[in-house]
Known about the structure:
The complex is a heterodimer. By secondary structure, chain A is an alpha/beta fold. Chain A folds into two domains: 2-182, Rossmann fold (3-Layer(aba) Sandwich), CATH 3.40.50; 195-322, Rossmann fold. Chain A is built from twelve helices and 14 strands. Chain A has helices at residues 6-20, 44-47, 59-71, 90-97, 100-103, 133-137, 150-162, 210-223, 242-252, 267-279, 301-307, 311-322; strands at residues 2-5, 24-28, 52-54, 75-79, 113-118, 143-145, 167-172, 179-182, 195-198, 203-207, 229-233, 236-238, 255-262, 288-292. In chain A, helix 7 links the parallel strand 6 (143-145) and strand 7. Chain A is globular and about 60 Å long. By secondary structure, chain B is α/β, with parallel strands linked by helices. Chain B has a single domain (5-12, 38-73, 106-295), classed as 3-Layer(aba) Sandwich (Rossmann fold). Chain B is 43% helix and 9% strand. Chain B is built from eleven helices and seven strands. Chain B has helices at residues 5-31, 45-52, 68-73, 78-85, 120-133, 151-162, 182-185, 210-225, 254-263, 266-276, 282-305, and strands at residues 60-62, 139-144, 167-173, 176-177, 180-181, 202-206, 231-236. In chain B, strand 6 (202-206), helix 8 (210-225) and strand 7 form a beta-alpha-beta unit. The interface between A and B is large, with 53 and 53 residues.
Amino acid sequence: MSTITFRDALHSAIHEEMARDDSVFVIGEDVIAQGGPYTVTEGVVDKYPDRIFQTPIAEAGIVGLGVGAALAGMRPVVEIMYLDFITCAMDEVVNQAAKMRYMTGGQASVPIVIRLPCGLGRYVAAQHSQIMESWFMHVPGLQVVVPSTPKDAKGLLKTAVRSPDPVMFMEYKRIYTSEGEVPDEEFLIPFGEAEVKREGEDATVIGIGPMVGKSLEAGVLLEDDGFDIEVVDPRTLSPLDTDTICESVRKTGRAVVCEEDSSFAGTGAEIAAMIAESCFKDLQAPVIRVGMPHVPMPFAPSLADSVVPRVDDVVDAVRRVIA
Amino acid sequence: MALTEELAKKMYTDMWRIRMFEEEANRQLGLGNVVGALHLYCGEEAVAVGVCSNLRDDDYIVGTHRSHGHCLAKGADMEHTMAELFGKADGTCSGKGGSMHVADLSLNILGANGIVAGGLGPGTGTALASKIRKSDQVSVCFFGDGAAARGTFHEAITMGALWNLPVVYVCENNGFQQWVRRETVAVVDSVATMAGSYGIPGVSVDGQNVVEVHEAVSEAVDRARRGEGPSLIEARTYRYFGHSPGDLEEYRTRDEVEDWRTNRDPINTFRAYMEERQWLTEREDEEIQEATSAEVTKAVKFAEDSAVPGIEEALTDVVDTAWRVEA
Lengths: 323, 327
Ligand SMILES: Cc1ncc(C[n+]2csc(CCOP(=O)(O)OP(=O)(O)O)c2C)c(N)n1
């Protein structure tokens, strides 16, 4: 084991996969200059100068070319500088990448990974802070992957590169510098396998992305109340490991679903509905969602910090679900 | 690729194959065996055939919503293509794509595309793959003149030109964008002139003349194969049928359609060219048409006899569910 940052984990996953497989290549804006805004592709150009493409500012073109290269047997790792800009390439994601396998009756495979730095980072307001996981979850054919730790980031990105189908890979900006233990030997993390990040008896907290860390912190604080929470990290939202979530909820009888994105019609809504459908008789209280209010991300740090869910919000929600 | 007598006969046959396939598809639409959108290619046969007669089996094509002709010219099998329009299990896409998504990946026909200009990015991406692999495959992106208005046209060609990719952009300018005439919504007459914005060669050819299309594309394909980058070829053409079912055709007169059919038909034009060179006897012409007609009849029979897909098929091919990695 070594302790490395989330960014380093992604960086080493890309380097390892490019060394392993000649069909892997990187494409995106500024991916050579500085290795992208978060330096994730740093050094790729030195080792694989023919497998990195620094593009003009043309998101639809970037994803479109990626789809075509993937159809032709390559494995593109696309970087979209800020997730928000994926809206410029939604046709390529939704109508092209996601539907090719189906529309061709299974002939086509589109093994593309689209890396999406997302969420609140520096205070850059409404067009540079979005998350949109639930948009992608709603599209059949897309896999949505949300690592919360350096270990998951590395194992899931390596798996994403090997996947025969499109992957929307969420990278929350605020956890790029977080540290964690990562195995030194080669490892992969299968899609559709949630991880119980903390075991407990009194309530299940399902955390998405950075809300996993916040839920674990909440878990420590709640010990003072005498509450022992279980924290489940789905790690991939599509496919979703409903079994692990339900198993935990059946044990605790209470569920809180936490995301940084707006709760309305969001990821937590889907998970809460799934729990209600599958575990209704085991629930001792209604499922509670924690998320951002249904507003664009404000600029002023005071405002932005007020809308993104914090550790306190998780603590509060757990107290309410147990009360 | 040099135009020999043998190649010319194949091209002439292919033009008839497309013509008769499309007319039959239209008839089957009337009978209710084909449903949904059906964008017919009659009148434009010289473009698909003039282009694909320059391609190898391993070259890539991406199409448009009007792509039956592209697929047939690149070698797609008529029976499975017809079965796809019928929504049958033996269709090229097992009945899950239909007219707007006909594809045969085994022939590097990446498929028709229901999104106008949706194929330009992926088509350019296949050329990027060829460049990375250092193969000498060439990619062709077919698109209508309407697609040149979309941003993806600009984005894809910019990158094709930037990286000198082995791709030929073929614009089928039939003068119409669904129910409107090009001149009422476009600011430049010729799409070929737009090539100048990307520093690549752009030529405009008579799309009713398969020899002219073939020669222009031959040069562009050679250039791409040599690693000298993309070209844009505009073929001026005309579609005989309405845009798709439900088109009232208020934007043109019957006389205009008749004039193109009578005086500028691509098959008649090519027949005259071949007869002049004594490459085609009347007898051979008859034989070609009879054989093609029989091929179409057989394709319809095949499509009729093919089973409808089992309803469980609606739930497969979303992602590859057999794929797993070990932790
Ligand atoms: C992005 C998008 N917008 C609109 C449509 C509806 N539509 C289908 S074909 C068409 C006209 C396309 O004109 P052109 O590209 O010139 O091709 P043509 O039909 O003339 O062959 C339109 C508007 C669509 N399929 N995709």
